[in-house]
Amino acid sequence: MSRDTQLKERWEKLVDILSNQFSQGEDLDLDAIIYLIGVQEYGKVHREYKKDEKLNLMHIAICRLLEPYGFYEFEYFDEEGWPHYKVKENLPPLKAGEQSVLMKEAIVSYFLERKLIE
Q: Which domain of life is it from (predicted)?
């Protein structure tokens, strides 16, 4: 099975699992899944977030997802429990489709680590 085919199958399975759990079956998009990862990484799942906090949660998720690729490194948790990352290496210029594939790969890897999918 090609890498692209495997990624596509794993992504579809992951979207199905998360959509059934968090959106009553309506397919979650990439941004929604990134947001969920941010909430999980922050650790405060049972509360509502303001718009700027939602953006911060997505930023946390992106940093965490791209950390294994060497782009970010975890630094510390602040007094409110927010994780902070530092940039280790700037992302190369990517086209929109390439960005999407990179994020999907990173998300699939994240959930493989947590054994949500195989």
A: Bacteria
